Amino acid sequence: MQWSLERADLARYVTAQINQLFPDPFPIDPASVLALLPEACDRLAGCFRHIRIKYYTDNGVSRYNHLHSDHHAAFLYILSNTAYRAHGHCPLAEKLFLLNKALHGLDAFYAIELPEVFLFVHPLGTVLGNARYGNHFVVYQNCSVGATSDGVYPSFGDGTILYSKSSVIGGAELGDDVIVGANTFILASRIPSHSVVVGAHPSCKVLPNSTPVIDLLFH
Question: Taking a C-beta distance cutoff of 8 angstroms, is the pair 77, 178 a contact?
Fold first, then answer.
């Protein structure tokens, strides 16, 4: 994996971003970020090495660029989740989550568990709730994953693409290799594997999907 910054520089960079945007009396120490980087960087490298789209590889080697907003959004989610796994609901996890929200307009709470392999594609305005996410999860801009008033969240199989302005709400169950079309709204519905879904509840149209999601975007 190629990194645009060495780990110590990356820790200082993220810490400076946090302390600049959230100048409360409790600044973050770069050492606390640096302590999380071995695990967080391993997780990011494990994710990125499966992605085979432009800007994620250089001569067959996966790469992270701190000035590529989709890269940095994924990194900040993983770093915040790593902080949460290590320390629970702590100021560092909270500020990393808020930093991601401020920089990228992405609401991916540090306590949600995204899969090992996921892909953010300019995810401005996207909100990801506490669903069960299968591997090879892809989300575009202005998407929503959330619960209904009963607190039930969706579940996703292996291989999901949520295209722009799509929403999956409530106890929806999506199988493997499901593509959710732009502007689609799914509410508490069961979607079979190998499907493309378009339209809005209760009149969604389910079409066959013959191309696995992993073949579209991943190794």
Answer: no
**Model confidence pLDDT, tens digit, residues 158-209:** 999 999 999 999 999 999 999 999 999 999 999 999 999 999 999 999 999 9
Q: What are the structural domains of the chain?
A: 2-107 (no CATH), 118-217 (2.160.10.10)
Count CB atoms within 10 A of the CB of residue 189.
19
Q: Which residues pair with 127 in a beta bridge?
A: 107, 144
- Alpha-carbon torsion 40, 101, 72, 5, what sign? negative
> Both tokens of residue 198?
């378009």
**CB-count burial class (<10 Å; 0-12, 13-18, 19+) for 128:** buried
Whole-structure pTM value = 0.97
Contact status, residue 89 vs residue 81, Cβ threshold 8 Å: no
Q: Which residues of the chain have pLDDT under 50?
A: none
- Residues shown for the chain: 219
